[in-house]
Write a structure and sequence with these properties.
The complex is a heterotrimer of chains A (313), B (501) and C (332). Chain B contains 18 helices and 24 strands. With 501 residues, chain B is of the alpha/beta class. Chain B folds into three domains: 2-239, Rossmann fold, CATH 3.40.50.300; 244-335 and 421-436 and 453-501, Rossmann fold, CATH 3.40.50; 345-420, no CATH class. In chain C, the strands form two sheets. Chain C has a two-stranded antiparallel ribbon with strand order 1-4. A two-stranded antiparallel ribbon of chain C has the order 2-3. Classes of the chains: A mainly alpha (313), B alpha/beta (501), C mainly alpha (332). Chain B binds chain C through residues 70-71, 86-91, 95, 99-100, 102-103, 106, 109-111, 113, 136, 138-143, 173-179, 272-275, 295-297, 476-477, and chain C through 1-5, 7-9, 12, 15-16, 19, 197-200, 202, 205-206, 208-210, 213-214, 216-219, 276-277.
């Protein structure tokens, strides 16, 4: 088994190694119940990371996801009473629309996705602040329970959030690996010139990729706001960086074309394990952030595929 | 003064330079001609230090030298003015002139711009370019940039003691007539301080400027003539002069094409900067080859037919109707397939496997409502792997890991399996071994028999002659001559070269 | 293929016009914004208000100038939040430990902070270059480490700097503007000097405009990169010092928001993300645009949420105007 064939599995290897190290230090880590809770907690982050995967997979990036999620938490809270469960459609539409706007700016206006999504993020934030009146809002508990109560609780020991995440993952995976759209995404990310030369409508594919990331951001935002029973323009802050980290560490490089949503699952788990590792290793709360950063550098150095990079910029 | 003795250079599979002898004396202008692949660029790279010879010696004023890199060659006064501009466009003219040698103007880490500008002005004077050295290079015209490159090379004068040898690689290809004249008079004046090696595909210019001309063919110097003795036709004959192996190109399989069925029609098409006023038709079963040197516009014409380049004038009709959107999508939908020159980045997607690449242009045929029928894709891939003898362990192999020949087969299979009947081949056998090349020739014949029309830009003139029904010769983007050739009645190499150069 | 002289000059002239537009567009935008706000509310156009704008802008300006060098090279530095926090906190500790007032040895804390910034930047560059990790990821991770380090150092506490001499950065005014503005101006000029008059500065442009060519001409690109990140770190440190001077507190959160602010400012100012174009004056204009909007909105009584939206639109506009579409076939 050469290094070449092992490369795609580096993220998995890193994850397993981390899990074993943490478990060795403190076997309590392996407690199924706490593991399940641990994973269920990061479902919104995972959903956002899945969305980010699509943007990065085609070689771009979506910096607006956090603000889209923020906007959606506000939208969900404000319109919940009026629409009940159907507010979900409005939220998803929001995310889709903003994502499509980012995609349009990137393809038709030649604005690099870094900038276009930075900008649409600002616009989404604007909307979030406006709708929320710059306050933190909370949901009417009754309506929330009747509309979205099914999101919580568990069946057979499996929290419903996990099931939702699983369903979304399956959907995203299917999209990525079994549809013409997913195949086209891969072509655009791995060899855009060849994709053009094969007659693919690259612009449309890119716009849809960003629309998808926006949609996932919206779903993440919706779940998050229902979970916390409220919404405000800053609720999802901090998620963006973690989502990007999850995608990159999982093995989908910034250049795209390789990796995908399953990789992002591994990446998200790595992030989660690193975070809980610090708790189990009884690392001082103040040191956790720093240790996180250092382990991150190590993880990135190990998982990136340097053969696919030309000049490192 | 500067001499190459029996210099030899080999690459895997290619004997690029065969015991080449070459001399240039003080103040001489020596021309270098040869067709594509004759070894001109390899020879130049050896001269300016990018390549090291495998055999033979290089001497400067009698002393043997060995350059490990271009900077060492520069220490001996050998510099190159590149065809593809080697200036960093966002920097100023003076920065480009002294790129890598700024230290002389630096004191305590601070650049003395005044000094650099004055020095730059002195250099620019040598090439009679009267511009402000602090101009950003991006603002200059191509002709001006060419002169800045020359000025950059001339800085060697101040740096070394000996005589300069300056290589000019196709310097006139981006210049207008008046600018060429200016360049030539400048070069003639500069012979008082340097010798020049002038490489160009434009025979008339080479003969006008040079004192002597070296003619290369297949990696060897076949002749050296002085200006007085030079005759264009004689040189052209020397440049070619091989027999075309008819078997190799499967000439016996060449069948007449269906002149009644026109597949693609170009009328007075112009793409500014590439080619002008081109008109031709291609029919079912026909192989039409566009022949010309680099920069003659051949590749651009192919890309126009595929919708990757948009003409400013003229119409492109595919199967009777003109292009509407004029993009690759439309071309593919109409049945046009493109096998690009840059196989690795434009032909296949490096990172996708055999069946993924094969269905990339026709995913609709292998999907139901957007969901791929991967089983069928794999079956398709397997079918063509067998049919074209593609060497791959299985259908899952990353195409980036296949050899060039097999990558090419995958690309051809992509178009053929999708039913494309206009196939554009851009240097299809470039970098392939003999066996793979023969496979490609077989496929070309098969496609013709199936009724496809093929527009080809060939790697060699022999290939062009051997494969095609029709040859169109281009020079500098303009139509020169058309040849029709059925087996046994094909134009000769000399016929083509005569119009190309 | 011959290209005639006239068509060439025409395209050259076209390019000149575009270049001129690119150069002046952000400044025009700034002037239009100032005029707009002044018209809407004359109070905007007062020395007092301009001073207010500059006071809030100068820390971000220093950070933005630092990251400008990196962006000119075609890379990016996302570590500023962490670096600024660490510099602020280490300055504060050192300052207090050495006497707590500028009149004592504590003034050494100032160059110390710059050294800390340089060290962090150096490590950042080293990781990027030697481990061959793209600058995006390397600097992002370093940012985490930095914020974490600041947290370790402070234990979550804030450190108050109450020394009058140090606070004079904010409190003492010359010609209506506090000293910190002049300090920032000084460093801006230093940055401009580096950019235009030193080999290092010009090397940034060479790497950004044609890395392979620069390398081929003997430039040690790796060294230039590492130096660039180190220099950025120094400017981040200056920004940290000004931030601490402004509010008199050093804490882990000192670095917050600098990332988005500085990158936005650089982009809005007209420096291209792919490198080779732009410079510190562009960044100055960009920073002013961002803070003028912030201040102007408040002065004319516009709700805060409009600010973000306008900023987003401006960012897009800035990039569209400054992009030469003929030069690029596609964008990622």
């Amino acid at each position: 088994m050469s290094l070449e064939t092992l490369k795609p599995y580096f993220p998995w290897i890193t994850l397993v190694a981390l899990v074993l190290v943490v478990g060795a230090i403190n076997p309590a880590f392996f407690n199924i119940g706490s593991l399940v809770t641990l994973v269920a907690d990061i479902v919104p982050l995972f959903i956002m990371a899945m969305g980010m995967t699509f943007a990065i997979y085609i070689g771009g990036i979506d910096l607006s996801m956090q603000q889209v999620a923020n906007l959606v938490t506000v939208v969900a809270t404000v319109y919940l009473a009026q629409f009940g469960i159907f507010v979900a459609f409005i939220c998803i539409l929001c995310g889709f629309g903003i994502g499509a706007l980012s995609g349009w700016l990137t393809t038709k206006q030649f604005v690099p996705s870094f900038v276009s999504t930075l900008a649409t993020g600002f616009i989404a934030l604007s909307g979030a602040r406006y709708l929320s009146g710059e306050r933190a809002l909370s949901m009417n508990a009754e309506v929330r329970d009747t509309s979205f109560g099914w999101m919580f609780g568990s069946t057979g020991g499996v929290p419903h959030e996990l099931i939702i995440a699983g369903v979304l993952l399956a959907f995203a995976w299917f999209l990525q690996t079994r549809t013409t759209f997913g195949r086209a995404l891969k072509a655009v990310g791995a060899g855009e010139l060849a994709a053009v030369s094969s007659g693919l409508n690259v612009n449309r594919i890119k716009i849809l990729a960003f629309a998808l990331s926006g949609t996932f951001a919206a779903i993440a935002g919706l779940m998050f706001s229902v979970k916390l029973s409220g919404g405000d323009a800053n609720l999802a802050n901090g998620f963006l960086i973690l989502a990007i980290v999850a995608v990159l560490v999982g093995g989908t490089p910034l250049t795209g074309g390789v990796g995908g949503v399953v990789n992002t699952l591994v990446g998200t788990l790595i992030v989660v394990v690193i975070r809980s590792a610090m708790v189990y290793l009884e690392i001082d709360a103040t040191m956790q952030q720093m240790v996180f950063g250092v382990i991150l550098i190590v993880a990135i150095a190990l998982t990136i595929d340097r053969t696919k990079m030309g000049t490192v910029k | 003064m500067y001499q190459l003795n029996k210099v030899d250079k080999k690459f895997p599979g290619v004997h690029a330079l065969k015991a080449v002898d070459f001399t240039i004396g003080r103040g001489e202008i020596v021309g270098l001609v040869g067709e594509n692949g004759a070894g001109k660029s390899t020879l130049m790279k050896v001269i300016y230090g990018a390549y090291q010879p495998d055999g033979g010696t290089v001497t400067v004023n009698g002393d043997e030298v060995r350059f490990a890199n271009p900077r060492q060659a520069m220490d001996y006064g050998i510099g190159m003015v590149f065809q593809e501009q080697s200036l960093i466009t966002n920097l100023t003219v003076m920065e480009n002139i002294f790129l890598g040698f700024e230290q002389q103007f630096v004191r305590f880490s601070v650049i003395n711009w005044k000094e650099m500008a004055a020095a730059a002005r002195r250099q620019l004077k040598k090439v009679k370019l009267d511009i402000d050295p602090s101009t950003v290079t991006a603002k200059l015209s191509f002709a001006q940039r060419q002169l800045v490159e020359l000025a950059k090379v001339l800085t060697l004068e101040e740096r070394i003691d000996g005589d300069l040898v300056i290589l000019l690689d196709e310097p006139t290809s981006v210049l207008a007539k008046e600018e060429v004249e200016l360049l030539f008079s400048l070069v003639r004046e500069l012979t008082s301080r340097a010798s020049f090696i002038f490489v160009s595909h434009r025979m008339d210019e080479v003969l006008e400027l040079s004192d002597r001309v070296y003619v290369m063919k297949d990696g060897a110097v076949v002749d050296m003539v002085t200006k007085a003795d030079a005759k264009v036709e004689a040189i052209q004959h020397k440049m070619v002069g091989r027999d075309v192996d008819k078997e190799y190109y499967r000439e016996q399989k060449q069948n007449p094409y269906n002149a009644a069925k026109t597949l693609v029609s170009l009328q007075n098409v112009t793409v500014p900067g590439a080619y002008k006023d081109i008109t031709f038709d291609i029919h079912a079963g026909e192989v039409l080859c566009l022949v010309g040197t680099e920069g003659s516009g051949r590749e651009s014409i192919l890309r126009t037919v595929f919708g990757l380049e948009k003409p400013s004038e003229g119409t492109v009709q595919v199967k009777g109707s003109p292009y509407v959107k004029r993009n690759a999508q439309e071309a593919v939908a109409r049945g046009v397939g493109y096998v690009p020159r840059e196989r690795k980045i434009e032909g296949i997607v490096n990172g996708m496997n055999v069946y993924e690449n094969m269905t990339l242009s026709q995913m609709g045929n292998y999907a139901t409502k957007g969901v791929l029928r991967i089983g069928e894709e794999k079956a398709l891939a397997q079918k063509w792997i067998d049919r074209l003898a593609i060497k791959t362990p299985d259908v899952y192999k990353d195409c980036g890991g296949l050899s060039g020949g097999n990558q090419q087969k995958v690309v051809l299979a992509k178009w053929r399996s999708g039913g494309s009947d206009v196939i554009l081949l851009d240097h299809p056998t470039r970098g392939l071994d003999i066996g793979a090349k023969e496979d490609v020739y077989d496929m070309v014949r098969e496609m013709c028999d199936d009724g496809a029309g093929i527009i080809l830009v060939a790697d060699t003139l022999e290939e062009a002659i051997g494969l095609s029904h029709t040859i169109i010769v281009l020079k500098d983007g303009e139509f020169q001559k058309r040849f029709d050739g059925s087996p046994g009645d094909k134009p000769s190499l000399y016929d083509l070269v005569h119009h190309m150069i | 293929m011959a290209v005639s002289g006239t068509s060439d000059t025409k395209s050259t002239a076209g390019r000149i016009n575009r270049d001129t537009l690119v150069k002046w567009a952000p400044l025009l935008v700034l002037l239009v914004l100032i005029a707009f706000f002044a018209l809407m509310e004359p109070r905007f156009f007062s020395i007092r208000n301009f001073a207010r704008i500059l006071i809030s802008a100068t820390p971000a300006l220093m950070v933005a100038v630092g990251v400008t060098f990196i962006i000119i090279m075609g890379s990016i530095d996302l570590s500023m939040e962490g670096t600024v926090s660490v510099c602020a906190v280490s300055f504060a500790f050192c300052f207090v430990w050495l006497g707590g007032t500028l009149n004592s040895w504590a003034w050494l804390a100032l160059p110390f902070a710059l050294l800390v910034g340089a060290a962090l930047g150096f490590i950042n560059g080293l990781i990027h270059v030697k481990l061959k990790i793209p600058s995006f990821m390397a600097s992002l991770a370093m940012g985490f480490v930095g914020t974490g380090l600041a947290m370790v150092l402070t234990g979550g506490d804030r450190i108050r700097i109450e020394d009058e001499a140090f606070r004079s950065l904010l409190t003492v005014r010359w010609f209506n503007f506090p000293i910190m503005v002049y300090v920032a101006g000084l460093f801006l000029i230093i940055a401009w000097f580096i950019q235009t008059r030193t080999t290092l500065g010009r090397n940034f442009y060479a790497v950004g405009g044609g890395e392979a060519l620069a390398h081929g001409s003997g430039l040690n690109v790796d060294r230039v990169r590492i130096m660039g990140f180190t220099l950025a770190g120094v400017f981040f440190a200056v920004g940290a010092l000004l931030a601490v001077g402004r509010i008199g507190i050093a804490e882990t959160a000192t670095g917050n928001n600098f990332m988005f602010l500085s990158i936005t400012a650089v982009v809005v100012g007209g420096t291209a993300l792919w490198g080779g174009i732009g410079g510190v004056w562009n960044t100055l204009v960009g920073v002013l645009i961002v803070f003028v909007i912030g201040n102007g909105m408040v002065v004319i009584g516009l709700p805060g949420y409009v600010q973000d939206g306008v900023l987003g639109l401006l960012v897009i506009l800035a990039v569209i105007l400054s992009t030469d579409r003929r030069a690029i076939s596609f964008v990622k």
